[in-house]
Every structure is written in C-alpha cells, then in structure tokens.
Design a protein that fits this description.
mainly alpha
Length: about 220
C-alpha cells in the first residue's frame, strides 16, 4: 500500500493540485466569499482523475500485484492529503488576517476556525458525490465532477448566507478569530467529523463499485 500511495503522488498527481495549495492565501482577501477556497482542492482532484484517464493510469496500475480496492484507497489518501493540506495552510493566514484592518467580512463568514469547519464539510460533501460516481466508470470524469461541484457550490451559497439569516452564526461564528473560541472549535470538530464520515463512506462505496467494474 505504501508503494501504491507513492505511485499516486509521483505518477498520478497533477501540478495544479500542488498549485492550488497556495490558494490558502485567499484567506487574506477582504470581503470575499472565503468558503470558495475549498473548491480548489476539489478541482485539483478533477484534474488528477482526468490526467489519470488520459494516461491510462488505472490500466497500468492493474498490471501491478495490487487489489482494485487498494487503488481506490490510495487515491482517497492522496485526496485527503491535498484537501487537509489546504485547511492546514489556511491557519497561518487566518492569524495574519486577524492582525490588519478591516476585520470582518460583509459577504459571509469571516476568516476563522468556524470557516475551516464549514470548509471541511463542503469538501466531504464533494467527496461523497464525486468519487462514488467516478468509480462506477473512471472513463467518465466530467459528469461526476459536475454533480460534485453543484453540491459543493450549493453548500458554499448556504454557508455564506448563514450569517445573514441565522443569529447564532452571525453573533458567535461570524466574528473575529479569537472571539467565542469554544463555539468555533466545536464547529471545526463537527466539520472534521463530518468530513471523515462522508469521505469514509464515499471510499467504501467507491471501492465496492470499482471491484464490480469490468475493466476488460
């Protein structure tokens, strides 16, 4: 499994996935829908899967002494590394954002830990939609991505609207970085838990579908 993961990063990954890690700097943009930041690692996964199709990566991998299920696990591991990498890289920019005025975000959620929790949930929703559809037929990448992106952007719209309509979100979560930390940490942990749950279920469902797929 270790060698298969190494193969994913060395042969199957796409340069854009690494470039999109740098978009964690979007946390510094004033008055911007910051949850859009979490779309880009998902877009990177689309390019990875598209690149894998064009290079016939699956057919090459199946020539190796590995199980089909392990191929899915390795791809999910790589996806989690890029997605969680963006979340981790956002943290120093959240701290930097808190040091300069104007503090706040008139568009939606401010740059804080609650935003990271919502971002994790959004990426979990994308994984839950994209990968199970993709592994039913890896030759078709576009439709699964459109479905996943539609769900993700619907979630982004709801996330950015919450501070305008839900008093708890407005008064507790949509505040400066170090205010109401218990509530924001709870949101972060809930988002992380839902990300793990949705991604784990997607991984299991994708593995079952891929094992049933006839690649001949």
């Amino acid at each position: 499994m270790k060698n298969l993961v190494a193969k994913e990063f060395r042969l199957a990954s796409h340069p854009t996935a690494y470039l999109f890690l740098g978009l964690s700097t979007m946390m510094l943009i004033p008055n911007y829908p910051l949850s859009v930041t979490f779309f880009y690692p998902c877009l990177g996964l689309f390019f990875i899967c598209l690149n894998a199709r064009e290079n016939r990566d699956i057919f090459y991998t199946m020539l190796l002494p590995v199980k089909k299920r392990e191929l899915v696990y390795a791809r999910f591991f790589m996806a989690a590394v890029f997605q969680l990498g963006v979340v981790a890289l956002c943290v120093p920019f959240l701290l930097l954002r808190s040091l300069y005025p104007p503090v706040g975000n008139v568009v939606g959620l401010d740059a804080n830990l609650a935003l990271l929790g919502f971002g994790l949930l959004l990426m979990g929703l994308f994984n839950g939609c994209f990968f199970p559809l993709y592994y039913k037929d890896p030759r078709k990448v576009g439709k699964p991505f459109l479905v996943g992106a539609a769900v993700l952007f619907s979630g982004i719209g709801i996330t950015e609207a919450l501070p305008h309509f839900v008093p708890f979100v407005r008064d507790r979560l949509d505040t400066a970085l170090f205010l109401f930390l218990p509530e924001k940490l709870l949101c972060l942990f809930l988002g992380a838990g839902l990300y793990a749950l949705l991604t784990g279920l997607a991984c299991r469902k994708s593995a079952v579908s891929f094992e049933k797929l006839d690649l001949s």
